Amino acid sequence: MPSVDTAEPQAIFRDDAGTLAVALAGSWSADRAPRLEKLVGEIAGRLQHGARARLDLSDVSRLDTLGAYVLNRLKARQERDGASIEIVSSRPEHGILLAEVQIHDEDKPRSPDHFSVVSVLANIGEAVVRFGRDMVGGAMFLGEVVVGSAAVVLGPRKFRGPSLVNQVELIAFNGAPIIMLISFLVGCIVAQQGIFQLQQFGATAFVVNLVGILVLRELSVLLTSIMIAGRSGSAFTAEIGSMKMREEIDALRVMGLDPIEVLVVPRILALIISLPILTFISSMAGLTGAGLVAWLYGGIG
To answer: pTM for this structure?
Structure first.
């Protein structure tokens, strides 16, 4: 004879003064999933629009999250179709489990948001408070960076050469190819457009001045800054954020190390060293692309 927990789930139907009374029994658990779906389908088939039903779980020997979910799903669907279902049980643990896996109807129309002067003022106030907190946090971080940099300058033993070299490699060496490619293509485009417009006035030769001033004074610095901010800046954020999540920064403090001196100052110094180098490389790549287009497309050479 099977144990109580392994009994097949059952549903016994009877009519109780116009209400469909369903006595559930057996094990309503995940290992009986096909049988549960079949029983739920039978219960749904007996319910019509506006019908009432009462599901009694007193004789259910075992109820897990799947069984509770199936019953709650049946209740939600039938009530959405106009029926009324009540789930009762003499065992309090059944009610607790049903409440934990209760299905919320997301199809209910939401009440429209009404314009309110108070809500607008509240949103403005929250934005101002957040802006103030961000400004204070930024000022505190800037102060910590200045103090950490001064500590490294005044105490050479705190200078971390390997970390600086590693960051310069990541920023300058690994970032040079993409900056060269973008600058080369932009130089080609600027030269081509300049030649196309200036040749209408017989001033094609002035494209050399145009490209030289534009690339050396504006584009190379701008492109390098954008690429470094997008590439290296996001890498810094992801790396330090990951360390924060794994509590590695707290571990540095426990070991008596200042995270600003260990993590921030080497990256700041690496940026100071790398940006001029990358700007020069960007300028040369842009001029090379512009010169190539001027020679092939404009006949200047």
So the answer is: 0.58
Nearest to 55 by CA among 66, 65, 67: 67
Amino acid at site 236: F
Task: Return the residue matching tokens 């279902």.
Answer: 85
CB atoms within 10 A of CB 146: 11
Residue pair 157/262 in contact by the 8 Å Cβ criterion: no
How far apart CA 10 and CA 23 sit, in angstroms, is 8
Task: Name the region of 252 (left: φ>0; alpha: ψ -120 to 50; beta: rest).
Answer: alpha
Phi, psi of 61 (to 5 degrees): -80, -30
d(CA 51, CA 145): 71
Return phi, psi of residue 16, to 5°.
Answer: -125, 90
Task: Output the pLDDT for position 221.
Answer: 93
Nearest alpha-carbon partner for 179 in 291, 293, 269, 279: 279
Among residues 11, 266, 5, the alpha carbon closest in space to that of 145 is found at 266
- Mean pLDDT, rounded, of the chain: 86
Cβ atoms < 10 Å from Cβ of 211:
24
Per-residue model confidence as pLDDT tens digits over 234-262: 888 898 889 888 888 889 889 988 888 88
Q: Which two tokens stand for residue 96?
A: 């607790």
Give residue limits of the domains in the chain. Answer: 10-100, 116-159, 160-296
CATH of domain 10-100: 3.30.750.24
